[in-house]
Design brief:
This protein has 57 residues and is an alpha+beta fold. The protein has one domain (7-50). The protein is 28% helix and 19% strand. It has a 3-stranded antiparallel sheet, with no helix packed on it. Strand 1 and strand 2 (15-18) form a beta hairpin. The longest helix is centred in the middle third of the chain and has 8 residues, at 32-39. The model has no long low-confidence stretch (mean pLDDT 92).
Length: 57
C-alpha cells in the first residue's frame, strides 16, 4: 500500500482491497454484535431501538 492508494474495507467479510492495485488481504471479520452496534450508530442508539425508546438526534 502506498500513499494515495484507494482502499475498500468490508468489515463483515473481513477483507481489505486495494482498489488501485487490486491486491486483497484477509482480516478478522467483525462479529454480528459489533456490526449491529455500528449499523445502529453506537451502543446507546442500539439499546434505545431494542427497547422501543425514541432515538434522539
Amino acid at each position: 500500500m502506498k500513499r494515495g492508494d484507494r482502499l475498500s474495507v468490508d468489515l463483515a467479510a473481513g477483507t481489505v482491497t486495494n482498489l488501485t492495485t487490486s491486491a486483497t488481504a484477509a482480516a478478522q471479520p467483525l462479529s454480528a454484535y459489533v456490526m449491529a452496534i455500528l449499523e445502529n450508530g453506537g451502543v446507546k442508539p442500539m439499546i434505545r431501538k431494542q427497547r422501543g425508546l425514541l432515538v434522539e438526534g
